[in-house]
Structure formats: structure tokens, C-alpha cells
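QUALITY CONTROL LOG
STEP: pairwise intake check
CHECKER ROLE: data steward
CRITERIA: each record must contain a sequence immediately followed by its C-alpha cells, with no blank fields

ENTRY 1 OF 2
RESULT FIELD BELOW
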Amino acid sequence: MEAQFISRHHKHQPKGNQCSSSVVRHIKAPVDIVWLLVRGFDQPQKYKPFISKCSTQGDLKIGSVREVNVKSGLPATTSTERLELLDDKEHILGVKIVGGDHRLKNYSSIITVHPEIIDGKHGTLVIESFVVDVPEGNTKEETCYFVDALINCNLKSLAEVSMRMAMQDSMKSINRF
């Protein structure tokens, strides 16, 4: 199934000076909880551990821009990002970095969220892919490794937050009886 979703939704066409990759994560939480977090373009810090603050203006829609403050420890302090795609029916979010003080030039990502069964329970398959310019002085392999590591960290945190929210929901249901 992963390959089918990647070929359908994650069609980046990197140019000669770019790299591209996809990261997959299986999360033991229902798709509605995971999607609620992912679609929160205006609140990425809810699950992205390297973001300390995010501000947006106006309604959340295609073309909306967010200003993100990055926590210390990374080679950046700010990032300006535009919402390129938001499909609540298909669970697809697309983001493009349009500015900031970092080396991720022409960065564009797609994240898709798909329901699946994990250990007999409702779970979620999350796929995030990207394309980005390779900074001068770096190789494609180094750039992909760095971005893959960031995405893996974000998706690990997404899994932890989603599973905690799912557990809280199930405890609320139990306490109603």
C-alpha cells in the first residue's frame, strides 16, 4: 500500500541540484486524531519538537503563510512557510518554504495520512515526502540524510502525541460508563 500512496500523492521531480525522499511511519492511533494534528498548519508546534512558536494571519486556506521560530540547536532560527495544499477528504497537506534564515532553499513537502489496521486496531499510515535544493558544500546524500532525520523526529513525535490523545479519548469513553 505504501508504494501505491507514494506513487499517487508524492510525485516530486527533483532537478539536478535537488534531492528528494519519502519517510513512512505507522501510528497506533486513529486517522482522525492524526489528521487533526497534521492539518494544523497554524499550530505545528503541537507535534514538531523543533518549533517553539508559530504565527499566522487570517483564515487558514491555500496560500496562507506561517512564520515559524525554530528552537536552538538547529542551523536556523526562523522559517516562512506557505500552505500549498489542504485536502480534508484525502488527508493531504502540502507546504513550501518561502523564506527564513536556513539552508533549505526551494523546500516543498507533502504529507498524507491513511487509515490502516495495526494489531487489530484502528491505526494510521503517515507518509511525508520532500524535494529541496542541495546547499553548496553538501552532497545529495548529506542533504537527504539531514532532512530525513528531521522528518523522522517530527513523525516520531506525531506518533507519541497522537497515541497519547487516543489514550485520553479512550479513558474518557471508559469513564462515561
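ENTRY 2 OF 2
RESULT FIELD BELOW
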Amino acid sequence: MALESASLLKAGLVLFVAAQVLPSVSGCNRVFYEGMINEHCLAKFKLDMGAQDQGLWCSWQDTMEIYERLTNCTYQVALRMDCYWPNQIIDSFFMQIHRIYFHDCPLTGRLLHDPPASILAPFIAVPVLVTLLMTALVVWRSKRTEGVL
């Protein structure tokens, strides 16, 4: 019994030491990684977005290429620094980007507008006509009561 306790204690100690050592050996320096994506990726993104008219920031067609370059840049930096991608740093990085540049954009990424009249008219006319037809049918049947039973 004492031998089993000692071996369990040793195993626990080994796991504890491994948990303390392995994160520092993993190769990803989080502070340096965050600095690199800010220095290389965010700086380029700011220049590209600054060169674009602010009214076009919500247009996905106009910002897609810039956004893809930013995403690819963060991925390439993560690969070179032996960091996982995506990770918590990237999540908060992109949340910050969206808060600064895309906070006024609709969820779909394009400006909302009414559909064309050729599409809207049938969706309005058909229910109105069906309602009128059903009302006329009920009135006609209620006036013609003979022979129903």
C-alpha cells in the first residue's frame, strides 16, 4: 500500500513538473507574438483601410482582399513563431479590429435595402387577392342556402 502511494506521488510530481516546464518549451512567446502581429499585420491593415474611403468599409467586396491579407498575415506569423492558429490572441485581435473598423456595419456585410418591386409586388398582391376571393366565396355561399343540407 505504501509502495503504491509512493509511486502515485512520484507520478503526480512528474506530471506537475511537466505541466510547469512544457508551456515554456512550446515555442510560442505570447507577448512577442502579439507584438509581431501588431507590428506587421495591424500596421499594414491600418494603412490599407486608411487608403480606402470610410464609406466603403462595410462593403465586403471592397474590404475582402484587405481582410484576407490580414488573416493570412496573422496565420503566417503564427507558423513562423510556432504558435497555434487560431488562438485566444487572434480572437481578441480580430474582435478589436471589428470594434474599430466594422462596428457600424450590418451583420450581412452589405447595406440593407428593399427588394425590387417585381419581387415585392407578388408577395403583397397574392395574399390580398386570396383574402378577397375567400371573402367573396363565403358571402356567396351564405346567400345560397337552399340545397346545402
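INTAKE CHECK: passed for both entries
DESCRIPTIVE NOTE, ENTRY 2: Residues 17-25 have pLDDT under 50 and may be disordered.
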